[in-house]
Every structure is written in structure tokens, then in C-alpha cells.
Amino acid sequence: MTTTAPLPQTRAAQAIRIFQICYSPETLASIPAGFSALDNTRNERPDWREYWHIRQYLLNHTLEENTLYGFFSPKFPQKTGLDLQGIQAFIDTRYHGEDVVFFSPFWDLSSFFLNVFEQADFFHDGIQATSRAFIKRIGGNEASIDRVMHSRNTIFCNYFLAGRKFWMKWLELGERLFAAAESTDASDELTAMLNAETRYGKQRVPRKVFVMERLASLLVAADPTCTTCPFDTFRLAPSATPLNQHFHKAVSCDALKRAWMDSGSAAAISTFMHIRDAVLKTLTQPAEKSEPGTKTKSLETIRGAGMIEVATT
Q: What whole-number distance in Å separates Cα of residue 29 and Cα of residue 23?
């Protein structure tokens, strides 16, 4: 008697739905294949940047169960090099029901800072104190602002996919931020801090935007039960800052932060600080080689760099 081995079960493709946030007729006309349009050409609240249109969608639609949703800026293909086919292929091979899947670029910015709040404060003054005040206001653990973050819990640009459960947590936290910033109480210090403008290149942008961008990272890092499926950040684009010249040191710094989280090793975190301090110090030093007539970027110019995308009218 012969027996036939059962055929391996083929896992059904995970359902995903990705929206491109469209700020202009040009971005509305250049939606990547398989993405849907989230039309923001009316640009009703430019002061909230992408939070406004993600918020409107989540408040006015019921997310389907067993579907991963994402709301990406038009620069997603440029910053990640990924299209829908690449995203689906990654999910089909690596996703096993985690709460969040993310494609976070800027490995240099995540590696050389303790967390997204320290990174934000370096580039955009006042973000760390504002974030701490917000966490305190909502009764959260202020220590979250000092928590070590690494490539498995750092999400830049809101480039993440998640199901209904995580998105509702994100919206709940976002609405508390929204309420604090929209308060009409002239004596509310937090409201003033959130709406105060900070540097962003040659522009000035309300701090609330940079706090909003860090809500996903905060939720992931602060909840030990939250599971993640991150795309390898070191395969994605770095920032446009000179920190992008230190790839191997960035890999080391990320590994050291993860080692510290796993073991609590004082040697791991002290070595991370030693390497990153040396790298940050290079930002204030003249470049070793430069073309005739070129100028080294000032530290203030570097610190004005940012990641948000400004909606056009």
C-alpha cells in the first residue's frame, strides 16, 4: 500500500488596503498601482498635515476585520523603493499576525538617537518637552519619552500597516492630542506648546505635527504586548543629513540598543552612547574633503532638516 503525503497548505494572501494621501492634482494623478486615493486637495486644515485626512477617514469609515490599512504620503515609493507588489511579497513571507507592519526609512535617524523624541528635539526644538507635557496631561507614563527605541519599534513618516485594533488605539491617542491642541483655554500651557512653531528647514511648523508623527512609535514601544513586523530599515533610504555617511556605525548602534533592551547590559548602552556621541560630534566639524567653493553645512541647517511633507494648497 502506498500513501500520498498531503499537499502543503497555501496561506491565503493577507488583505491590505493602502491609501495615498493626495495634496494636489499632480499627486492625485500619480497614485501607485494598487493604491487608493485619499483626496486632500481641499486642504482644509494644513496645520495638521496628514493627521487631518487620516483622522477624517477613520472617523467616517468602519475598518474591515482581518485587513491591514495604511495611509502613505506620495513620497513613499521614493523613500522606500517599494510598490504594492513588494509590500505584498514581504507580508506574504514575513507577516504572521503581528499588530503592526512598518516600512520605516531613515536608518541613521533611528540608530544615532536614543529614541524618536530625542531625535525630534535635536532637529526640531521643543518637541521632547512638549511630548512629555502631553503624556503627563493624559495620565500616561512620562518615562515613555525616555524609553530606548530601535529598528523594531521606530516608525517614521507613518509608513505602517495595521488592523482595526491598532488604528483605533492610534486614533484615540491622536484625538487626545487634537483636543489638547484645539483647546480655546488661553491659559493652557500645553495648548500653547503644541501650537508653537518649530524649525523645519526654511519653514516653521507647529510642534503638534511632530508629536503626532511619533504616536505610532509611542504606542509600539510603550506596550510590551504589541507585536511588530518591521521591514529591514537598512534596506531603505537614509535621511538627507550627513548622518547618512555612517552606515556601519548605525548598524552597530541599533544592535547595541536592541542588546540593551534584551539584556540590560550597561556595556551595550554605554558603547552605544560612545559611538553615537562621536558621530554627532562630526556634524560640528569641517568636512575632511570638499570641492573648491563649497561650504560645510552649519549645525543649525542640519538641525532644520525634517521628515514631514507639507500639504500644498
A: 11
**Helix locations, the chain, DSSP H:** 25-28, 50-60, 76-80, 84-94, 107-111, 116-123, 127-137, 164-182, 189-195, 207-212, 215-222, 247-263, 266-281, 299-303
- For residue 205, report the phi and psi dihedrals to the nearest 5 degrees: -130, 140
Would residue 158 be called left, alpha or beta, if left means φ above 0 and alpha means ψ between -120 and 50 degrees? left
Nearest one of 25, 217, 26 to 127, comparing CA atoms: 217
Confidence of residue 131 (pLDDT cuts 50, 70, 90): very high
Of the chain, the percentage scoring pLDDT greater than 70 comes to 87
- Residue 222 pLDDT > 50: yes
Q: Provide the angle, in degrees to the nearest 10, between the axes of the packed helices 215-222 and 164-182.
A: 120
Give the C-alpha separation, 121 to 207, whole Å: 10
What are the backbone angles phi and psi of residue 154, rounded to the nearest 5°?
-110, 120
DSSP-assigned states of every residue in 97-150: S-SEEE----HHHHHSSSSHHHHHHHHSTTHHHHHHHHHHHTT--GGGGG----
